C-alpha cells in the first residue's frame, strides 16, 4: 500500500549500511564522509511472516507473495538543518513524505569512523535531530498561522478548528516537546495530520551497536532503550555491520552465521516488524493453489480490505468468507475449516482482524 518509514540520523551513524542490508542491495553508498547519500533511496522490503509460509504449505500454493513496506534512506542531518545547513532543506522535504521515522543512533565506538559532533552520545544525537525537526515545525506553523486566522475570522469552521490545533502544536513545540506527544481529540485527528508536522510522526529508535554487542546491547544502547520506555516508544538493538554481512548469505549460511554470533534471527526482521507495528499495520491473507498472499491494512472494514486487492472488490462487496488463521491451520485448510463450521460469513461492518484468511464475494 506504499507505506514508508524514513531512516534518519546524523551522518556516519550507519543509516546507509542498514538500508543496504534491508534491501539487500548496494544502491545507497555507505562511505565514511558526511552526505554520502545525496538523493533519498527507497527500498521495498518483505515482511517476515511465518504464517504465510504455513498457509502456502497447506493450500499447496505455487507462489508466495509477502506483505511489503518501503524504507527511505534520507541524507544525514546536521545541527542547523532547519535553517538550511548541510542538506537540511532536502532532508526536511523528504521526511514530510514518510509515514513514520526510524532514528538510527550510533551506539558504537570506532576511531576509524568520524562522528560529526566529535563524540559518541546517542541521546545527544537524538536531541539534535529532534530539535531541528521541531524548529522546522515551528517555522512552518508560524508561516501559515496568519492566513488561517484570517479565514477563521471570516467564519470558516475548518479554519477555526485549524487555529486551535496550530496553537496546541506551537505550545507543545515551544515547550521543547515533539508534536507527537500532544493530546489530540479523535475527531481532530484528520485535521491534525493535515498540518504535516515532522515531529507528529511515530518514531522508532534503532540502536546501531558494535558486533560484540549485537546480542545483548551495551551501555550506550541501554540508555536509548530507557529513553524509549519513558516515551512509550520502541527501540531495536542491532549491528548494521553484521546485518550487512548476513543479508548476502543464503538461508542455511545465515542460520549458521547467526548461531555463531548468539543471535536467533536477523536483527532486520525485528526492525521490519517494529516498522509494521509503528505504522499500526496488520495483515490478512488470501490462500489457494495459485498463490498465498499477505495483504497490509490499517484498521479496516471488510470492504476496505477488499479494496486493497482491487477497487471493484470494495465497490461491489457482498460478503467476506473468513477463517481465523488458527482455525485454518488446525483444520488443515479451507475444506476442513468449512466442515468444522469455522468459516464465517462477514458483512460490510466487519472489522478485519490480524491473521484472517479471507475470500471476498462481490458483484460489479
Description:
With 364 residues, the chain is an alpha/beta fold. It has 14 helices and twelve strands. A six-stranded mixed beta sheet has the order 2-4-1-5-6-7, with helices on both faces. Strands 3-9-8 form a three-stranded mixed beta sheet, sandwiched between helices. The model is unreliable at 25-38 (pLDDT under 50).
SSE inventory with pairings:
Blueprint: E1 4-8, H1 15-23, E2 41-46, H2 50-59, E3 63-65, E4 68-73, H3 88-95, E5 100-107, H4 122-153, H5 157-174, H6 189-194, E6 203-209, H7 219-231, E7 234-238, H8 240-246, H9 251-260, H10 267-278, E8 282-287, E9 291-297, H11 302-309, H12 311-315, E10 317-323, H13 325-330, H14 334-339, E11 344-346, E12 357-362
Parallel strand pairs: 1-4, 1-5, 3-9, 5-6, 6-7
Antiparallel strand pairs: 2-4, 8-9, 10-11, 10-12
Helix pairs in contact: 1-8, 4-5
Task: Give a brief outline of the structure.
By secondary structure, the protein is an alpha/beta fold. The chain is built from 14 helices and twelve strands. The model is unreliable at 25-38 (pLDDT under 50).
What structural category arises from helix and sheet content?
alpha/beta
- Give unreliable regions as ranges: 25-38
Q: What do the pLDDT scores average to?
A: 86
Major sheet: size, sense and barrel closure?
Answer: 6 strands, mixed
Shape assignment? flat
SSE pattern: EHEHEEHEHHHEHEHHHEEHHEHHEE
Helix content: 40-55%
Amino acid at each position: 500500500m506504499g507505506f514508508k518509514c524514513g531512516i534518519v540520523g546524523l551522518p556516519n551513524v550507519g543509516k546507509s549500511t542498514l538500508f543496504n542490508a534491508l534491501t539487500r542491495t548496494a544502491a545507497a553508498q555507505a562511505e565514511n564522509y558526511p552526505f554520502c547519500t545525496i538523493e533519498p533511496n527507497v527500498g521495498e522490503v518483505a515482511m517476515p511472516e511465518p504464517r504465510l509460509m504455513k498457509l502456502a504449505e497447506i493450500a499447496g500454493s505455487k507462489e508466495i507473495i509477502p506483505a511489503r513496506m518501503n524504507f527511505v534512506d534520507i541524507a544525514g542531518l546536521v545541527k542547523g538543518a532547519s535553517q538550511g545547513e548541510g542538506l537540511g532543506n532536502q532532508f526536511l522535504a523528504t521526511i514530510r513524505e514518510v509515514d513514520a521515522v526510524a532514528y538510527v543512533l550510533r551506539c558504537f565506538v570506532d576511531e576509524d569512523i568520524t562522528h560529526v559532533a566529535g563524540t559518541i552520545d546517542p541521546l545527544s544525537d537524538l536531541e539534535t535531530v529532534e530539535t531541528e525537526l521541531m524548529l522546522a515545525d515551528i517555522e512552518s506553523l508560524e508561516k501559515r498561522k496568519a492566513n488561517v486566522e484570517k479565514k477563521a475570522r471570516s467564519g470558516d469552521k475548518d479554519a477555526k478548528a485549524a487555529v486551535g490545533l496550530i496553537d496546541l502544536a506551537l505550545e507543545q513545540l515551544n515547550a521543547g516537546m515533539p508534536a507527537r506527544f500532544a493530546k489530540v481529540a479523535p475527531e481532530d485527528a484528520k485535521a491534525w495530520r493535515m498540518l504535516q508536522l515532522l515531529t507528529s510522526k511515530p518514531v522508532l529508535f534503532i540502536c546501531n551497536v558494535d558486533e560484540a554487542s549485537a546480542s545483548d546491547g551495551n551501555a550506550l544502547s541501554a540508555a536509548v532503550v530507557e529513553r524509549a520506555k519513558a516515551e512509550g516508544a520502541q527501540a531495536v538493538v542491532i549491528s548494521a555491520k553484521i546485518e550487512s554481512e548476513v543479508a548476502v548469505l543464503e538461508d542455511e549460511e545465515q542460520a549458521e552465521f547467526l548461531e555463531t554470533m548468539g543471535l536467533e534471527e536477523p536483527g532486520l526482521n525485528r526492525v521490519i516488524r517494529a516498522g509494521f507495528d509503528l505504522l499500526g499495520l496488520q495483515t490478512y491473507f488470501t490462500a489457494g493453489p495459485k498463490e498465498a498472499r499477505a495483504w497490509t491494512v490499517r484498521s479496516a472494514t471488510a470492504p476496505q480490505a477488499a479494496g486493497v486487492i482491487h477497487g471493484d472488490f470494495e465497490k461491489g462487496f457482498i460478503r467476506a468468507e473468513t477463517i481465523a488463521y488458527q482455525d485454518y491451520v488446525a483444520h488443515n485448510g479451507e475444506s476442513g475449516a468449512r466442515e468444522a463450521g469455522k468459516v464465517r460469513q462477514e458483512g460490510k461492518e466487519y472489522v478485519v482482524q490480524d491473521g484472517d484468511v479471507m475470500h471476498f464475494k462481490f458483484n460489479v
